[in-house]
Amino acid sequence: MNDIPLFGGIEAGGTKIVCASGTGPEDMNRAQFPSGSAPDAALAPVIRWLRCEEERRGRFRALGIGSFGPVGLDPHSPSYGRITTTPKEGWRNADILGTFRRAFPGIPIGFDTDVNAAAMGEHRWGAGRSLGDFVYITMGTGIGAGVMAGGKLLHGLVHPEAGHLRIPRLPGDAFPGICPFHGDCWEGLCSGPAILKRTGIPAEDLPGNHEAWPLTARYTAIALADLVCALSPRRIILGGSVPRAGLLGRDRFLAMVRNGVREALGGYISVPELSGDLSGYIIPPLLEENAGICGALALAETAWEEGRHPTDSRNDVSSR
Amino acid sequence: MNDIPLFGGIEAGGTKIVCASGTGPEDMNRAQFPSGSAPDAALAPVIRWLRCEEERRGRFRALGIGSFGPVGLDPHSPSYGRITTTPKEGWRNADILGTFRRAFPGIPIGFDTDVNAAAMGEHRWGAGRSLGDFVYITMGTGIGAGVMAGGKLLHGLVHPEAGHLRIPRLPGDAFPGICPFHGDCWEGLCSGPAILKRTGIPAEDLPGNHEAWPLTARYTAIALADLVCALSPRRIILGGSVPRAGLLGRDRFLAMVRNGVREALGGYISVPELSGDLSGYIIPPLLEENAGICGALALAETAWEEGRHPTDSRNDVSSR
After folding, report:
1. B residues 149-188 lying closer than 8 A (beta carbon) to A
2. Looking at the structure, do residues B106 and B142 belong to the same domain, yes or no?
């Protein structure tokens, strides 16, 4: 055990749970386990792994958890730290935070959405460094956004659910979408499962010249243009498995998305950042698939700092 | 002259310019002048009126300006305090802030969008009091949104331009919209001029049973649902002339919008605020048409406070 504070991080995703010990990307150990359909069975090996890390590296000062959702983020609500309305079998009302509180009593635990954690990771060490206003998007099994606004993660009433934006349909496209709540919202049209349903081919095997790519890119561009109108971000970080899936290549997918965003905005917002090819405005995550787990460590550090200097702005009356 | 600080406020709109002296809604004097097509000619009587108020009531400690836009809000840009890409004749590049700086030298001047000013007014004295996360919408000549996020007005790269959200079209509606940039964005479909173009009747004369009302309400509901997904506000304040126009009545328009928002969200975000009839979630402005000018006084007060205790978070490196 030494004087450098050690943190534990957990990134709970719909497919796998990643966990880590360390202080950031430089000194992080990580492991991953399948999520499965039983939260307790899925979290037990995570807890065992973290305890082994503590035995090897020293006690954690705090934990940070980024979880798939929707999750309860209001500390005054009984749903705080729980998954709420997920369609994922077995995980509805799963008490993620409570499970780790019982396993690691007495230390602060930061809790947020998986995408907010990833935004936090990119803010601290990646493509959102020193930017107070940006959006981190992940397109994979679902589509989600973590929003940094005025230097703070945006929560509001619950947390943004940008995957469920309703967007205009492209002429001639009759695919009904797969979102059980909304059908053809952005996630219903462009998530990995939506691409599989549309084409019969998993996104990662989709040929580079398949017509689903320009469709997916154009719908994504319209959704991003809507986020520009709603949030005025200084940058959009576009991560997840879909942009790098298949035989198209992420560079070409991002180029199609950037073209579509420029077209959708129609030159209305005339600033240098939104002119040209947008190659500095819509970018991939710098931490790649480690954004979320690094962000979980950053959430742990924030929880630790707040435990030492209690000024949690989320309990500030002006933010309620 | 007395010890209570006196402020001047200016709300520059596309049709009229409202100005006020005072500290808030309780002691405010106000006047209004047509915007016309020549900024200098339009602002001169505003400046004269404000100077008369100073002679009567004492010197202003600061001014606050809320302006129609898009406007430059980056203090480090040459476009700061100017209108940028407006389609409004004569006002492109108009130097609003500079005009008042020259007329009232030596006092701080707060500058923001008209809708951010209105959000500020409702935050300070109205329907957004003690809410750190809400959206103020105005639907009139244009559609705009002022966003409070984490207790601060959201600026980001420029400022939100929520009127230009692209939304799905309703089946059977072939109206192309009137936005010169986007055609059928929300503003292109639902602003006052859009309703006139669609129906041939000014919104204020539109019969209560005209089919344009449910269409306008449903498009507005989809746009608000998108803002819920992007921003997760704790409340939406829906102001402007369109909701209270015509022979329908604002209560019935708001009821149609609330129904549409509930339908568009499809029960996905399961919190009490978004259940039921949404009558506490989507509400009219409490300050009504005074939201913007009251907000301009609040912007003046903020500028004055920041002049005394310089901690402008917008100059904070973490917010850039």
Report:
1. 149-152, 154-169, 181-182, 184
2. no
Residues B108 and B238 occupy one common structural domain:
no
Distance, in angstroms, between B133 CA and closest chain A CA?
A: 5
Q: Which CATH number goes with the domain that contains A135? A: 3.30.420.40
SS3 content of chain A, % helix, strand, coil (to 5): 40, 20, 40
Record: contact A166-B264, CB cut-off 8 A: yes
What ipTM, to 2 d.p.?
A: 0.92
Comparing CB atoms, the residue among A151, A156, A230 nearest residue B226 is A230
Q: Are B93 and B82 in contact (CB under 8 A)?
A: yes
Q: Which of residues B54, B89, B114 is at a domain's end?
A: B114
Q: Are residues B278 and B153 in the same domain?
A: yes
The answer to whether position A296 is within a domain reads no
User: Is B297 a member of any domain?
Assistant: no
Whether A312 is covered by a domain: the verdict is no
Q: Which residue has the tokens 């109206």?
A: B175
Q: What is chain A's mean pLDDT, rounded?
A: 93
Please judge whether B232 and A181 are an interchain contact, meaning their C-beta atoms are less than 8 angstroms apart. Answer: no
User: What's the rounded Cα separation, in Å, for the pair B253 and B281?
Assistant: 15
At A243, list the tokens.
Answer: 């942009």
The residue type found at A263 is: E
Contact A229 B165 (CB under 8 A): yes
Residues of A numbered 127-146 whose beta carbons fall under 8 angstroms of chain B's beta carbons: which are they? 130-133, 145
Q: Are residues A132 and A221 in the same domain?
A: yes
* Subunit contact B225:A85, Cβ cutoff 8 A: no
A188 interaction partners in chain B (CB closer than 8 Å): none
Residue B251 has pLDDT above 90, yes or no: yes
Q: How many CB pairs under 8 A join A and B?
A: 193
User: Looking at the structure, do residues A108 and A132 belong to the same domain, yes or no?
Assistant: no
> What is the C-alpha to C-alpha distance for residues A7 and B131, in angstroms, rounded to an integer?
33
B40 is a domain residue: yes
Q: Note the pLDDT tens digit of each residue in B88-112.
A: 778 989 999 999 999 999 999 999 9
Tens of pLDDT, residues B28-55: 999 999 998 899 999 999 999 999 999 9
Distance from CA of A306 to the nearest CA of B (A): 17
Range of the domain at A63: 7-114
Spell out the residues 6+ positions from residue A198 whose beta carbon is closer than 8 angstroms to its own.
A175, A212, A215
Half-sphere exposure of A179 (CA within 13 A, CB side): 22
pLDDT over 80 at B5, yes or no:
yes
- Please tell me whether residues B140 and B254 are part of one structural domain: yes
Q: Tell whether A33 and A175 lie within a shared domain.
A: no
**B153 vs A312, higher pLDDT:** B153
Q: Is B222 on the interface with A (CB under 8 A)?
A: yes
Which residue, of A114, A147, A164, is where some domain finishes? A114
A65 close to A12: Cβ distance less than 8 angstroms: yes
| Residue A257 Cα, gap to closest chain B Cα (Å) | 16
| Nearest Cα residue to B99 out of B6, B5, B12 | B12
Same domain, A178 and A247: yes
Beta-carbon separation of B149 and A151 below 8 A: no
Counting the structural domains of chain B, the total is 2
